[in-house]
């Protein structure tokens, strides 16, 4: 497995060569027994068997479903009491950020922590969505549909091989992302001193920057797809499907926020 692009997969780089690849094809175990198990021993547990596409799909559906459900509930709460928007957004954002870091650097996936991350992100997204929906009805649904559309398009792009995920492309995406995040940080610091670069406010520059960020998030989906694909090809244990789900959830949360921001800018003139 090449060096990981998503922090959620960073600790997996050496696992594919640490014995897991010896499980054989992801379709099943070699005839005559499972590595580490005698032919007369009990079959491996679901956590020990090789990861499959179904594992990734089910775990991703679980995390995204949690984000969506918690987000809807939080948005309804905020619509009924707008004063709760700020504390819920800040609280959810901080907890989500901390859990995101913890999950990213854990050597073993922790389903409870990943689910807690999904809950925190649901609160954060629900809070900001409730505010947007209050002032611009219908925009939140457009952002959700836009996120789904980008996901579908990038999945097709990856599956058809229209864009190959190579080490060079991976480094390019990471480099541009780090540059963009550094620019956001500089803009935040300057904003605290009363200077606005215009990349996160209204206006043409903000629109262009939002489009760039949406494009970057879309390309990160390609990296996430590739990492999940490599995990399946190398027959890593099924429990690592939680890492794939976590990485995809992180990227989709980012993508949704950027699309929502763009629609807010375009509709707030």
UniProtKB/TrEMBL annotation:
Keywords: Membrane, Transmembrane, Transmembrane helix. The chain crosses the membrane at residues 56-78, 84-102, 114-133, 139-160, 172-193, 205-223, 243-266. This is YccA/Bax inhibitor family protein.
């Amino acid at each position: 497995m090449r060096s990981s692009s998503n922090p959620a997969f960073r600790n997996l780089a050496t696992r594919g060569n640490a014995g897991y690849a010896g499980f054989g094809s992801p379709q099943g175990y070699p005839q005559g027994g499972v590595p580490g198990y005698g032919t007369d021993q009990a079959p491996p547990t679901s956590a020990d068997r090789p990861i499959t596409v179904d594992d990734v799909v089910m775990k991703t559906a679980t995390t995204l479903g949690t984000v969506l459900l918690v987000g809807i509930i939080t948005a309804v709460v905020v619509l009924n009491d707008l004063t709760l928007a700020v504390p819920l957004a800040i609280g959810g954002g901080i907890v989500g950020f901390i859990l995101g870091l913890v999950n990213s650097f854990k050597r073993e996936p922790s389903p409870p922590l990943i689910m807690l991350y999904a809950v925190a992100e649901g609160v954060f997204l629900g809070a900001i969505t409730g505010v947007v929906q209050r002032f611009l009805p219908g925009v939140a649904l457009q952002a959700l549909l836009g996120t789904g559309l980008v996901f579908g398009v990038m999945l097709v792009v990856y599956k058809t091989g229209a864009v190959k995920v190579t080490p060079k492309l991976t480094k390019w995406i990471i480099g541009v992302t780090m540059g963009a995040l550094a620019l956001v940080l500089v803009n935040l610091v300057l904003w605290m001193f009363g200077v606005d670069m215009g990349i996160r406010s209204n206006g043409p520059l903000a629109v262009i920057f939002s489009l760039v960020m949406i494009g970057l998030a879309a390309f990160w989906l390609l990296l996430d797809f590739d990492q999940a694909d490599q995990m399946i090809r190398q027959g890593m244990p099924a429990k690592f499907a939680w890492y794939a789900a976590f990485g995809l959830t992180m990227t989709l949360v980012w993508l949704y926020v950027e699309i929502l921001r763009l629609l807010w800018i375009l509709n707030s003139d």
